[in-house]
Write a structure and sequence with these properties.
166 residues, mainly alpha, 5 strands, 3-stranded antiparallel β-sheet, 7 helices, two-stranded antiparallel sheet
Length: 166
Amino acid sequence: MRKLLDHITIILFGAFITAIFLLYLLLPQTEFSDVENRYLTLRPKISFESLAKGSFMTDFDSYTAEQLPFRNAFVKLKALTEKFLLKKENNNIVEGSDSYLFEKLSVVNERLTKNEEIIKSFAKENDRRINVAIVPNSFEILKEKVPRGLPLVDEKKEIDKFYKDL
């Protein structure tokens, strides 16, 4: 009886691995995830150079993780599980009152510094008048919906500093 269960387990596992492999081959690649609002990694091109540098395996690993068959269903299942476990944070997204979602931003984003440098460089190279508008994150606008005690960057102060530095 034990050997029969072992054989059944091996056959089911083999069938599962084969089915996933076939789904990777047969299902079309998804370029953009509407659920996550971002572009996904596409199947990397294999070449001698990418194999020698090791970049192919890194890219292929990203591809298999992001092009997983039924990925959106798994993402939704994870979110539902997190909600069922009463977690208020999921992948740096925090749920506020009335089911509003906010990005948890506790340090100044390095993109802000990089964007400031690019704008300054552009302004120096051009003799035109340049207008810049910085839009704060939703947690700055909807403060009454943000969960209490959530450590966040004072965006108003950072935006004012950004304008002053420009």
